[in-house]
Design goal:
532 residues; alpha/beta; OB fold (Dihydrolipoamide Acetyltransferase, E2P); 5-stranded mixed β-barrel; 13 helices; 13 strands; flat
Length: 532
């Protein structure tokens, strides 16, 4: 007889064994029986609209947990309220499990709104704030360059987004791409995107790294939480302040973030951003070829029109013989008449020269010379007479002026002035002596007043001055504290050190206080006398 039972587990335990399918089915039945009808309140997340099959898949979440949800096609058509991303709803349905992935979910039969979710409320508040500052204004948006030479891409270097952008730009119009790698999801992603935008704008023209002509901020689709970094206020402000035109390509066509409002252009997808950024090279080449052909045809047509216009104008012009006929006749007439006119002119000039020669005979010239000499002598006589009259008049004026100048009068005026100067000098000396006497009296009074106010004079009568640290006088007993060292100043600048104690306590010898060097007394005024 054997003690081994083949129906029991090899481990010796009596716990029943289940297959994976059996345990998944048991859990599914338990969950569906226990939660066959439930109402769940949560915020919709990850909603992308109904699937191609008509079913809708999303999640319900709160601040601590997340529940997968599904609305079948038949139930979705009957919903009075369609789900929207970020809205808080109350879902009625049943819980079930999905054995294929060991997940549980709620199958929704009815959906009612329960208010906007916390994230959507925060997003809307931030949007209204930035919009009020004018960061989303249309006049701030700049046109995109038609054919950029360098494009800066801000995205994750490992995702499919950068490959899609590179392939699309390479197919359409290959240009130089600069990739600034950043995190596009999670903590700190917004700060990295903002730093990348500012970094591209900080590049200088002609530097080691070329400055982009266009920026693309790209990320694939995701839930509101996944895209939350692109709703960061720093990202929006960096996009609005960018001097380089910027395209926002975050999420899919149904996804909207705040950077989409601040960007100069929004693309529905990252691939769409690449299509917006550059034209198709083949289309540009075809357009250039078409324009070149149209330009050549237009030039040919214009040349034909100009050629016909020139021919028509040539037909309307007279022939060269007709144009030269009249000038040629005038030339012939002038050539035939020039000899006759020359002979007449020579005859007229010869007659004129004869008349002039007749008037220039020697007899006539001598008469003219004698007449001119007589006129010159007459003018000389008049000039001598006028010169004598002028000299006589000047001599008379000089004699009258000399008679008016008398040495005795000048000497009298000089003596009078000297006497007045001596009188003024005497008065000035008297005034100076009086002023000096007054100043001496005032100074003596001030000296007597200063001597009467000098505290050293008071010390001569038996008083003393108590001086504390830094040689400052102490006027109140409260200023002396126990153990405080001080000095007592007597007459003749004699000082003794002491220490403040309570009554009845003997004084202790202390180190003399530091004395300040006495200031020199002002010198007595010296009588400088008078200047006169």
């Amino acid at each position: 007889m054997t003690l081994f039972d083949e129906s029991r587990p090899a481990s010796g335990s009596n716990v029943a064994e289940y297959s994976v399918s059996e345990i998944s089915g048991a859990l599914k039945k338990t969950v569906e029986d226990t939660f066959g009808h439930v109402r769940v309140r949560g915020e919709i997340s990850g909603y992308r609209g109904p699937h191609a099959s008509g079913h809708a898949y999303f999640s319900l979440k709160d601040d601590r947990a997340r529940l997968e949800a599904v609305v079948w096609r038949t139930s979705f058509a009957k919903l009075a309220f369609k789900p929207e991303e970020g809205l808080e709803v109350v879902a009625t349905g049943r819980l079930t499990t999905f054995p294929g992935s060991s997940k549980y979910q709620i199958v929704i039969d009815e959906l009612q709104p329960a208010g906007a979710g916390a994230l959507m409320a925060l997003l809307n508040e931030r949007r209204l704030k930035l919009e009020a500052e004018g960061l989303f204004a249309a006049e701030r948006k700049r046109p995109l360059p038609y054919m950029p030479r360098v494009i800066g891409v801000i995205t994750s270097p490992t995702g499919a987004v950068i490959r899609d952008i590179c392939h699309r730009i390479s197919d359409r119009f290959p240009v130089h791409l600069l990739v600034w790698p950043v995190r596009v999801q999670g903590e700190g992603s917004g700060a990295e995107v903002a730093a990348a935008i500012e970094g591209f704008n900080a590049l200088a023209d002609g530097g080691p790294a070329p400055r982009p002509d266009l920026l693309i901020v790209a990320r694939g689709g995701g839930s509101l939480e996944d895209l939350w970094g692109f709703n960061d206020e720093a990202v929006v402000r960096a996009a609005a302040a960018s001097t380089i035109p910027l395209i926002s390509a975050v999420g899919h066509e149904t996804d909207w973030t705040l950077i989409d409002h601040a960007a100069d252009r929004r693309a529905p997808t990252p691939t769409g951003a690449a299509e917006i950024a550059v034209p198709v090279r083949a289309e540009v080449a075809a357009s250039l070829a078409s324009l070149h052909a149209r330009n050549g045809a237009a030039i040919s047509r214009q040349l034909d029109r100009d050629r016909r216009a020139v021919a028509a104008s040539a037909r309307g012009l007279p022939s060269p013989d007709m144009l030269l006929a009249l000038p040629r006749r005038r030339l012939d007439e002038a050539a035939s008449g020039i000899g006759r006119a020359l002979r007449v002119t020579v005859s007229v000039k010869r007659g004129g020269y004869g008349e002039v020669a007749a008037r220039l005979s020697p007899v006539n010239v001598e008469g003219v010379v004698r007449h001119k000499r007589a006129e010159l002598r007459q003018a000389e006589t008049h000039a001598i007479h006028a010169m004598g009259s002028l000299l006589s008049l000047k001599r008379q004026r000089l004699e009258r002026s000399a008679a008016q100048i008398r040495p005795q009068a000048i000497a009298a005026q000089s003596a009078q002035g000297r006497h007045r100067l001596d009188h003024l000098t005497h008065r000035l000396e008297q005034a100076l002596r009086g002023a000096l006497d007054r100043k001496r009296g005032e100074f003596a009074g001030a000296a007597r007043m200063a001597a009467s106010l000098d505290p050293r004079q008071v010390l001569q009568r038996g008083y003393a001055i108590i001086r504390g640290p830094e040689d400052q006088p102490i006027t109140r007993a409260d200023d002396l504290t126990e153990g405080m060292a001080f000095e007592v100043e007597f007459a003749n600048d004699q000082r003794r050190s002491a220490v403040a104690t309570d009554a009845g306590t003997p004084l202790a010898a202390v180190r003399p206080l530091r004395r300040r060097t006495p200031k020199p007394r002002p010198a007595e005024p010296v009588d400088q006398g008078t200047l006169f």
